[in-house]
Amino acid sequence: MVRYFALFGAGYDQRAGREVPLYLNNFGYQRALPQDATVSRPRGREDFHLLYVASGEIEVGGRILRGGDSYVYFPGEAQKYTYCADGDSLYYWMHFTGRNMEKDLAEIGLCSGFHPSNGKKQETDALFRLIYDLLTHGSDRESPYIVSLTRALFELIASPKSAAQPFSGARRSLESEDISVGDIAARYGMTAAHFIRSFRAVYGVTPQRYRSDYRLREAKMMLSDTALSVSSVAERCGFDDPLYFSRAFKKHFGMTPTEYRKNNLET
Asked: How confident is the model at residue 57 (pLDDT cuts 50, 70, 90)?
């Protein structure tokens, strides 16, 4: 059975195209196609069009897009593509517009044409699912949250394999700055709750857990490579309470910092 879902109509919002930075005209997916389905628009569309393969294959101009691949059409470009029959297929698509959109896309390297998978398919799939879930639960398609997530998605698709990370700035801040999650969320135009949910959808942990795990890994290296006391290591890695640090270290690594250092020296 074909499962086809479109969140809203395929029209083009003239006002939004001129007045807002980014606007989703429509968004949807094709799933489990029993037969090929070809789309042909010789004159293209008035807005931008993104195709993404979560699973299955899409044929575009003799090229086969597979899992993690994307294709972008700019306004006015002739479109012809085929969703290939596959019982396990999942194809996402979105049409979007906004003032200065071509310039904005150029700045992040999202050009017209084929964008191969950069090895971050899991994260890309997660962002598509999150946008879909939010829109189906009534989120406004031009809300700051939806706009921020969509821009993060564009940046991820456009990034080369070596640099493809959604919320990379947030990760750097969590690793190197003594900054609250709320302040990081504000940089993305999100509430703290929305940012936590988005970050966890991509990385599988909350921002606070990511920060704690990173600090514990740093502490582990310092215990191996320096003669600093356990309390000094805890302080340098952002743990104000040595007792809490010791408990967190044991929970994460299965032994206390003192036990780890002793075992490491013995080997």
From this structure: very high
